[in-house]
UniProtKB/TrEMBL annotation:
Pfam families: Ketoacyl-synt_2
Species of provenance: Lysobacter arseniciresistens ZS79
Protein name as it appears in the record: Beta-ketoacyl synthase-like N-terminal domain-containing protein
Location of region: Disordered: 30-52
GO MF term set: acyltransferase activity
Ranges for domain Beta-ketoacyl synthase-like N-terminal: 38-181
Coiled-coil annotated residue ranges, if any: none
Upper taxonomic lineage: Bacteria, Pseudomonadati, Pseudomonadota, Gammaproteobacteria, Lysobacterales
Length: 270
């Protein structure tokens, strides 16, 4: 694959204990953590009653998506989006399966519509009024890398800017023994084609693992802080962005690595 490139206009981040990108950057810089942090994200995109009822995975996806758009100064309604999640809302999937097996007439219609993998994308497009395409991607532990490839491909084929969101929650039930995930994690990037000397950039190249060495930068501060979430494979990129590193590598599937070359304007000019 030839290199795909983008400018990073905005970043959103949320995990328990580090509820913003500002908090994540401070933690990477010197280990600082906020004195108090909410146990659950509270996406302002939703009305208060919807905010309380939304699954945690939807809440974290919307929270970081809106944060990335606000950081970039972009209107969410004008953007195509890519939502990457290994599991979607696995707790509701487990509920659906167990209820269908034991008492199928008792399935909740509300919980059913939150069980689909594109639930977060649906909430986002409805809440923002976005009429552009919204893509939902799952590729096991390569979900974020493949979502990033999709977002970069959309830029390369004409989109001015694309919102990329990665998120996962805790896995439960029998599937937890097959695909483990703990905690709640979400992060978002607002990517664009425009050239900006004051913003970080990334250039992505997909290759074989053996061609680019081991993924040795996978245990940065954020990756150590949230190691067991299904979306943790995206954290080498966010560690690199927070720490000003020139390269990050992401698992892109069996035998494949997505190598990301990064530039950081504050290091180039400061």
């Amino acid at each position: 694959m030839s290199a795909l490139a983008a400018t990073i206009e905005g970043v959103g981040f949320w995990t328990r204990g580090l509820p913003s990108w500002t908090d994540a950057r401070a933690f990477v810089a010197d280990g600082t953590r906020p004195e108090s942090a909410p146990p659950r994200p509270s996406p302002q995109l939703l009305a208060p009653n919807e905010r309380r009822r939304a699954p945690e995975t939807v809440a974290v996806a919307l929270d970081v998506a809106l944060a990335a758009c606000e950081a970039a100064g972009r209107d969410p309604a004008t953007l195509p989006s890519v939502f990457a999640s290994t599991h979607g809302e696995l707790a509701i999937t487990d509920y659906m399966c167990s209820t269908l097996a034991s008492q199928p007439q008792a399935v909740s219609p509300t919980r059913f519509h939150n069980s689909v993998h594109n639930a977060a994308a649906g909430y986002w497009t409805i809440g923002t009024g976005a009429m552009h395409g919204a893509t939902a991607i799952s590729a096991f532990d390569a979900s974020f890398a493949q979502g990033l490839v999709e977002a970069l491909a959309q830029l390369a084929t004409g989109a001015e800017a694309v919102l990329l969101v990665g998120y996962d929650g805790t896995s439960t039930g029998p599937l937890a023994r097959v695909s483990r995930s703990e905690g709640l994690l979400g992060a978002a990037l607002l990517l664009s084609r425009g050239v900006r000397n004051d913003l970080p950039t990334l250039q992505a190249t997909l290759g074989d693992d053996g061609a680019d060495g081991d993924i040795t930068d996978s245990r940065g501060a954020l990756a150590r802080f949230t190691p067991d979430n299904a979306m943790s494979p995206m954290l080498p990129l966010f560690d690199a962005l927070a720490g000003g590193l020139p390269v990050a590598r992401l698992n892109a599937g069996p035998g494949r690595t997505l190598r990301l070359a990064l530039t950081h304007p504050e290091l180039m000019h400061g």
